[in-house]
Amino acid sequence: MSVYDSEELEKVVSSFELDGKVVSIERFGSGHINDSFRVVVNEGDKSYLLQRINHKIFPNVDGLMDNIDLVTTHLKSVLKNEVIDVDKHTLTIIPTKSGAKYQKDANGDYWRIFILLDGTKSYDIVETTKQAFAGGMAFGRFQKQLSTLDATQLVEILPNFHNIDFRLSNLRKAIEADRVGRLAEVGELLDYIFEREEKMRRILVMAQKGELPLRITHNDTKFNNVLLDQEDNVQCVIDLDTVMPGYVAYDFGDAIRTIINAAAEDEKDLNKVVLNIPLFQAYTEGYFSEAKDFLTEKEIESLWYGVLLLPYMQVVRFLTDYIDGDVYYKVHYTDHNLVRTNTQLKLVKELEGAEAQLREILSQSVVTPS
Ligand code: GN1
Ligand code: MG
């Protein structure tokens, strides 16, 4: 993780248009990609979220910020008919003093600031069915609100992001190169992954047949990317870096991956990686309460494939990064990516074991009004 001294950070912050004098700047959040800081000012009722954009991963910073601007402007225009304080329900970009959406510093790093929504809660592990239901509503509503934005205006900021063929091809390249000599440790995992290759291509196959509409999706629907208010009602969807055209099943599956797992994404004790099925049901009901009207039958059919695919895709991605020598995700200890791989793999196995039960809940939730 990069280290910054406070002078550097203050200098960066001073190029933005903030309401008040900066009192403190502290590390914030648990993202694997960008570096985040909370900036507190001495006036007004706002704090700010300062982020260093990881431009190795997002080389098109202009496209990235233009996407977020388009999306948040659209969401605000929809929200203004529904809520009083629009800025509490979607991200707000704070421009620099010269009116830009980000600031480049002398080291070539890119920085941006959003309003930080104080008084909200986010969860790495979901605790109650109320939270899970709210998460389902949040992402269902997000997709619904963006269904009226022209998808061709958005840049495909990370091409092939959820394309499993692309992810498996990257894994094969990593295996071939074996850059840091870790391949010997991962043999059995590879058998497991490649045995499931065809099964995990179902969404791609449906899409290739023209059965799935391309919509604007979030593409990083981890549960901690939903902010809930103090009473655990939906407040705001955050982390809009990967918003781009995609299939709804990807968002559904990635959310379920974090909701249904009773343990953390990187839990070392695999006995703790078990399914919390009531949370699955609650999320699904929350999601359908918002999304039922616009989803097609084929999209509804694809949701289950997303549930299996997204944890599997994380297995492939974490393992690729482990073999490559940890060049993509932040890691907090040597084997972190391997631990993440094993945790997600255990989750895929659990999901496969509960397939009949989970699919039954899915089809019940779509017909039951919530
Ligand atoms: C990364 O930004 P963050 O940490 O929420 C990753 C996601 C993964 C996630 C796994 C741009 O998200 O795709 O699902 O880690 N983001 C990118 O926790 O690769
Ligand atoms: Mg992210």
Automatic annotation (TrEMBL):
Keyword Transferase found: yes
Domain of life from the UniProt record: Bacteria
Parts of the chain that traverse the membrane: none
Any GO molecular function: transferase activity
Keywords: Transferase
SUPFAM superfamilies, sorted: Protein kinase-like (PK-like)
Keyword Transferase listed: yes
Pfam families linked to this entry: APH (PF01636)
Record domain Aminoglycoside phosphotransferase: where: 25-258
PANTHER family the record matches: AMINOGLYCOSIDE PHOSPHOTRANSFERASE DOMAIN-CONTAINING PROTEIN-RELATED, SLR1880 PROTEIN
Protein name: Phosphotransferase family enzyme
Gene source species: Sphingobacterium yanglingense
